[in-house]
Amino acid sequence: MITIGLTLILIAKIIKKNVEKTKKKYKIQQGKITYSDLNKPAKCLFSNKLKISGKPDYIIKRKDKYIPVEFKTGDYKKPQKNHILQLATYCQLVEDNYKSFVPYGILVYNNKKQYKISYNPQLRFELENTIKQMRSILKTNKIDMNHNSFYRCKNCSMEKYCNIKIK
């Protein structure tokens, strides 16, 4: 009986050590992880309000707040607009699925820079407008290019709707 107890204690310590290693590897914030799409695919979240879906990298719970966290590769000096809007999408998804106000989300970049992005009324409005614009593009099949980068064109999800190709 004592052997089983000691074995369980040892297993618990190993699990705790592995969790700490994973948190450090993925730069996970303090708090309890309530959702993760990093190690294995997680359930897709859906917003009835905005008719959008997505999967944040993980969600942590701090006190009584749920905070989405998005991990990005790349060495950026400041948060990128598309990353901010993606994080705003996750903030809305968390609010709708967890029925809890989300004050902010966190962007974590590969270069160890982290940004706390406030999910304020301005960002909420911008997210809703961006979704409306995207739906209009899909409906009309008309898109205006907003850059001059071959690499962005090459990897663009809207490529089939765009009449302009950069070569």
Number of strands: 7
Shape category: elongated
Specify the helix fraction band: 40-55%
Side by side, the strands of the main sheet go: 1-4-5-6-7
- Main beta sheet: strand number and arrangement? 5 strands, mixed
**Residue windows where pLDDT falls under 50 for at least 5 positions:** none
CATH topology of the domain at 26-119: Lambda Exonuclease, Chain A
CATH architecture of the domain at 26-119: Alpha-Beta Complex
Q: What is the CATH first-level class name of the domain at 26-119?
A: Alpha Beta
Structural class: alpha+beta
Count of runs of 4 or more consecutive helical residues: 4
> How much is the radius of gyration in Å?
20 Å
Order of helices and strands, N to C? HEEEEEHEEHH
In whole angstroms, how far apart are the ends?
71 Å
Oligomer: single chain
Topology:
Layout: H1 2-25, E1 32-36, E2 45-47, E3 52-54, E4 58-62, E5 65-72, H2 81-98, E6 104-109, E7 114-118, H3 121-140, H4 150-154
Parallel strand pairs: 5-6
Antiparallel strand pairs: 1-4, 2-3, 4-5, 6-7
Helix pairs in contact: 2-3
What's this model, at a glance?
It contains four helices and seven strands, in the order αβββββαββαα.
